[in-house]
């Protein structure tokens, strides 16, 4: 059955999974995917009158918790212009999310091709791919309904994305780092927006609700997978991964969170605003650090925090205390 707003998705918690083996954990996650999941065209009322996109709808104004929406520049603009920018930015975030999901799907399939029989990892991974396919449909339909012809990620990312899919086979650790780098920032921002109480257009709110619900399982799987694989890390491999981990996180974070040059041009965003928001101001730097609290927690668990890697985290501006538990809310998050 599909999950609905009245019957939210039931994702196993860390307490539910405590003490289970890796294979048993994946079986529990698989059962959860079977019994509660979303369908892009059954669980979103696309043709409902309240989902119609109409001119001058203030629900397209970006929330203050959004990096760009919280700037004095954006808030000083006429309402019509704020709506225009809000539609573009929200549609582009969906498009970037769609592109990341496509890379994930391709990479997981590459990872599974040589896998043997009777592996719970195969079953759960294909459940996840099924859900991610629905997410790509959901994101693309959202972009289509908003009606802005956005391109998504920066040009370099679009060009290399097909090759990133190939990493799922020979470089599974780096690939799963990339999965988290794509999922964690979007998940953090969506949860922050939903917790803020800001009224957004129902298309955006419903897409966020569904994505957050199912991504909880997907992120949980990526964490569990990396913890399992970390048991076989050699000393040199662990050190190399400790340096690669924060770099992958930081580079892909910009792909998701920072407006592309094309978006800056289309929306005429001043260069001084871009410099302040990404990532020179104290407020934006705190957002950047807070986004990676769960990622730092996992790095500690994987044994990827050492004297050298901590310097890399700091140099990239994503250092700080690890989360005490997954999805721990940050005080004054942005």
Automatic annotation (TrEMBL):
Highest taxon of the lineage: Bacteria
Pfam families per UniProt: AurF (PF11583)
InterPro entries xref list: AurF/CmlI
UniProt protein name: Diiron oxygenase
Source species: Nocardioides daeguensis
